[in-house]
């Protein structure tokens, strides 16, 4: 396999008498010969981006409605249950989606961050459209028909995705090997990155799940509180596109460190003391930008430290671990709220500290690649 950059250090280990290359990237310039293998655009490439974005619109876009469902269940079907118990429903949705693995485009190299940003912005757009649909449909046609109407939209978008998405690289016929998933965890850099994503996601889902309930506890009207979800997700479109495009120029790890630190500060310094409507709305928008960048950059970070044929497997392995953060974060937050008799103080601290730990681990991962020197990473 050709080296991906002029300064990639290859390390090998034995597995059934074959050498399996792994890599450690140290500077930003990709190998021009390999770069030419990527179309970096064209009809099929951008149709694949559109189809993949539609997939995330109907999957993560739906899950991004958790704040509305959390409050609706608490006051309707599941009003006899605690916030922690109800939180297992949306957290389980996120867990099974992330644990099942994510796609990685093979159409882009130099523009990978921008392309990935457009793809994952589909989840943000879904997180804007679906909540607004639910806010208006549930009072008009009831919960059951609101779900059916959303399901028809999901069906149409999945049909579009099936018609437009294609792989540039022919499928490799090889049996599934458990070691293919476990092998990356022998690399300290990969372990550090996976841990960073785990902690960042652990904290990130606290505001996503509880922002509506938190706002209601401070006197915001239900109608306005429900609109915090599309505000958050609408702002995350900018967080999932602009930082990704910037990352192609200044380095994916560099941007991720800034945005994860920004998110941690927002939660601890802005959301924790926020009580008025204006402060909570501003937090929702800014948090959408910060958390959107974190989600949008994660696949590109996995690709950055992976050999090309293993990008999909290694990204799936990282996300399968991070799925447990999505599964447990919201129930932990709900338990902290219940223990404090409805106060969100310690749940917010848990979310902010988790994101801060994730930021520090992103710094450690970057340091394992190039040290602390200024470089595009």
Concise summary:
Helix content is 72%, strand content 4%. With 377 residues, the protein is mainly alpha-helical.
Beginning-to-end CA distance, first to last residue: 22 Å
Largest sheet at a glance?
A: 2 strands, antiparallel
Query: Which percent bin holds the helix content?
Result: over 70%
Can you identify the CATH superfamily? MFS general substrate transporter like domains
* CATH fold-level topology: Growth Hormone, Chain: A
Number of strands: 2
Indicate the CATH architecture: Up-down Bundle
Highest-level CATH class: Mainly Alpha
Order of helices and strands: EEHHHHHHHHHHHHHH
Low-confidence stretches: 1-36, 101-105
How would you sum up the global shape?
Answer: globular
GO cellular component, one term: membrane
Protein name: Major facilitator superfamily (MFS) profile domain-containing protein
Keywords: Membrane, Transmembrane, Transmembrane helix, Transport
Family: Belongs to the major facilitator superfamily. Monocarboxylate porter (TC 2.A.1.13) family.
Explain how this protein is built:
- It is found in: Membrane.
- This is Major facilitator superfamily (MFS) profile domain-containing protein.
- Keywords: Membrane, Transmembrane, Transmembrane helix, Transport.
- The chain crosses the membrane at residues 45-69, 89-110, 117-139, 145-165, 189-212, 224-241, 253-272, 278-303, 315-334, 346-364.
- It holds the Pfam family MFS_1.
- Residues 1-36 and 101-105 have low confidence and may be disordered.
- By secondary structure, this protein is mainly alpha-helical.
- It has a single domain (9-370), classed as Up-down Bundle (Growth Hormone, Chain: A).
- It has helices spanning 32-35, 43-58, 60-63, 66-75, 83-99, 112-164, 178-182, 188-217, 222-226, 228-250, 252-271, 277-304, 311-339, 345-370; strands at 9-15, 18-24.
- The two termini are 22 Å apart.
- The chain has 14 helices and 2 strands, in the order ββαααααααααααααα.
- A two-stranded antiparallel ribbon has the order 1-2.
């Amino acid at each position: 396999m050709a080296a991906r950059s002029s300064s990639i250090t290859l390390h090998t280990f034995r597995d059934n008498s074959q050498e399996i290359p792994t890599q450690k990237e140290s500077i930003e310039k990709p190998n021009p010969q390999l770069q030419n293998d990527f179309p970096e655009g064209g009809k099929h490439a951008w149709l694949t981006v559109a189809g993949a974005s539609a997939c995330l619109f109907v999957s993560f876009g739906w899950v991004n409605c958790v704040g509305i469902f959390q409050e609706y269940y608490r006051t309707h079907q599941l009003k006899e249950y605690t916030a922690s118990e109800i939180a297992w429903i949306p957290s389980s949705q996120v867990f099974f989606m992330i644990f099942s693995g994510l796609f990685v485009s093979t159409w882009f190299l130099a523009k990978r961050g921008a392309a990935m940003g457009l793809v994952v912005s589909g989840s943000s757009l879904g997180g804007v459209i679906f909540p607004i649909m639910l806010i208006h449909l549930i009072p008009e046609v009831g919960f059951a028909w609101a779900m059916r109407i959303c399901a028809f939209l999901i069906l149409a978008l999945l049909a579009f995705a099936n018609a437009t998405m294609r792989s540039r690289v022919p499928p490799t016929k090889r049996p599934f090997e458990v070691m293919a998933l476990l092998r990356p965890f022998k690399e300290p850099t990969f372990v550090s990155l996976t841990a960073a994503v785990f902690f960042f996601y652990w904290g990130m889902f606290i505001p996503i799940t509880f922002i509506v309930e938190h706002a209601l506890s401070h006197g915001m009207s239900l109608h306005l509180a429900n609109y915090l979800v599309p505000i958050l997700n609408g702002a995350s479109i900018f967080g999932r596109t602009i930082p990704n495009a910037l990352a192609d120029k200044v380095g994916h790890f560099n941007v991720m460190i800034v945005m994860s630190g920004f998110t941690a500060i927002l939660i601890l310094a802005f959301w924790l003391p926020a009580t008025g409507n204006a402060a909570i709305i501003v937090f929702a928008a800014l948090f959408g930008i910060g958390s959107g960048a974190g989600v949008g950059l994660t696949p590109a970070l996995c690709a950055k430290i992976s050999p090309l044929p293993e990008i999909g497997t290694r990204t799936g392995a990282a996300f399968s671990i991070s799925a447990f953060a999505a599964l447990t974060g919201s129930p932990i937050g709900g338990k902290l709220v219940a223990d404090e008799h409805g106060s969100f103080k310690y749940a917010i601290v848990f979310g902010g500290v988790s994101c801060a730990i994730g930021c520090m681990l992103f710094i450690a991962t970057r340091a394992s690649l190039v040290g602390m020197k200024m470089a595009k990473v």
